[in-house]
TrEMBL record:
Residues 2-255 form the ABC transporter domain. Keywords: ATP-binding, Nucleotide-binding, Transport. One of its GO terms (molecular function) is ATP hydrolysis activity. InterPro entries: AAA+_ATPase (IPR003593), ABC_transporter-like_ATP-bd (IPR003439), ABC_transporter_ATP-binding (IPR050763), P-loop_NTPase (IPR027417). It comes from Mobilisporobacter senegalensis. This is ABC-2 type transport system ATP-binding protein. Coiled coil: none annotated.
Length: 261
């Protein structure tokens, strides 16, 4: 169970006008502006649920995921995931979660992917038998046989993403955070990734929180969507009941218009 209550997060961003004299002034006097990334965010997500977390650029999606994964500490508010506060009990918490940031890699770049998996086995202290079972399952379902001995940097984006998802699940986490997992993938790879996530959710009741700008991902994977805009949760509801004959893209455009985000 994920319970987020009244989370706030503000970032201080340095600001200065362009030009050499302004750069010189900034050496002695820095001006900061506060950006409210998250403004009183609350929601709960049950075990085994798959939820789409959507909103325009800069809405606060990644900041939320970072707080839920324990990477970022909020200014105020509380978050309990399986009874733990992510940023206070990070080591225990990371055993329960898998994270895929579509734009960043968790694989060691220059070594064969299987070596990254082995390193993760050490990091998470996965017993050998469990590791072998998980590896077999992931290799089969994600079709990694051909690519697992190749260094990550030599893989295509789609191949690498399949390995990233495999790496995020090697320790059998109960919760999976996916931040734009299909970004830049071709249609075939996107469908493979979506089918795999559906399958994992069915087999292991993995809870999935998905942030994406790809509404086909949302349509394929989630029934519930949480809409965030300018750091606030604007809507939390069932996608099907909102569609009423329109496409998901149309629903989202309408929502963005309605909430002026
Ligand atoms: N480390 C940081 N330092 C300063 N400001 C930040 C930082 N991280 C995020 N922000 C600001 O917080 C706000 C929310 O950013 P966030 O990355 O959470 O949005 P997002 O919804 O994930 O956007 P996108 O869809 O573009 O990835 C933005 O205004 C962003 O500039």
């Amino acid at each position: 169970m994920i319970r987020v209550e009244h989370i706030n997060k503000t970032f201080q961003v340095a600001r200065r006008n362009s030009g050499i004299s302004e750069a010189f002034k900034a050496l002695f006097h820095k001006e900061y502006e506060c950006v409210k990334a998250l403004d009183d965010i609350s929601f709960t997500i049950d075990e085994g649920e798959m939820v789409g977390y959507i909103g325009p650029n800069g809405a606060g999606k990644s900041s939320t995921i970072k707080i839920l994964s324990g990477i970022l500490t909020p200014d105020s508010g509380s978050c309990q995931i399986n009874g733990r506060t992510p940023w206070k009990e990070r080591i225990a918490h990371v055993r329960d979660i898998g994270v895929v940031f579509g734009q960043r890699s968790q694989l060691w770049w220059d070594v064969p992917v299987i070596d990254s998996f082995e390193l993760l086995r050490d990091i998470y202290s996965i017993p050998m038998k469990k590791f072998k079972e998980n590896l077999d399952e992931l290799v089969t379902l994600l079709n990694l046989e051909e690519i697992i001995k190749t260094p990550a940097r030599q893989l295509s984006l789609g191949q690498r993403m399949r390995c990233e998802i495999g790496a995020s699940l090697i320790h059998s986490p109960k919760i999976l955070f996916l931040d734009e997992p299909t970004i830049g993938l071709d249609a075939v790879s996107k469908i493979a990734v979506r089918n795999f996530i559906l399958d994992m959710n069915k087999r292991h009741k993995t809870t999935v929180i998905l942030t994406t700008h790809d509404m086909q991902d949302i349509e394929a994977l989630t029934r519930r969507i949480i809409l965030i805009g300018k750091g606030k949760i604007l809507m939390d509801g069932d996608l099907e009941s909102m569609k009423k004959g329109s496409s998901v893209d149309e629903v989202v455009v309408e929502l963005y218009k309605k909430y002026e985000i």
